[in-house]
Design a protein that fits this description.
Length: 123
């Protein structure tokens, strides 16, 4: 019932910024909690940030605390990840995901996934 498409990745120097966008299809977008995960080569998928159905509650991983901000616009079926003060260790493929209200930080709790967008941060 939900299809997700990410965009906005690219190459940026350390200390720079990027904004990732995830556009969802489906008429029930506002019923899902949304999240961003990332995966670097040879590593398991890692939680980055999540946002509640209404956008009133957000949660982020300690590794991105104070640097990344997740937001959503339900009228546009869109979720964003604003990434500031980027570091080389942020380099990964970033995925958006949709799940139930209590999906939390576990990737296995999310039902729908985008194809990912590459973020590369040079030192």
């Amino acid at each position: 019932q939900v299809q997700l498409v990410e965009s906005g990745g690219g190459l940026v120097q350390a200390g720079g910024s990027l904004r990732l966008t995830c556009v969802a299809s489906g008429r029930t977008f506002s019923l899902y909690a949304m999240a961003w995960f990332r995966q670097a080569p040879g590593k398991e998928r890692e939680f980055v940030a999540q946002i509640s159905q209404s956008g009133g509650t957000t949660d982020g991983a300690n590794s991105v605390k104070g640097r990344f901000t997740i937001s959503r616009d339900n009228a546009k079926n869109t979720v964003y990840l604003q990434m500031n003060s980027l570091k080389p260790e942020d380099t990964a493929v970033y995925y958006c995901a949709a799940g139930g209200a209590l999906s939390g930080r576990l990737s296995s709790n999310y039902n729908y996934w985008g194809q990912g967008t590459q973020v590369t941060v040079s030192s």
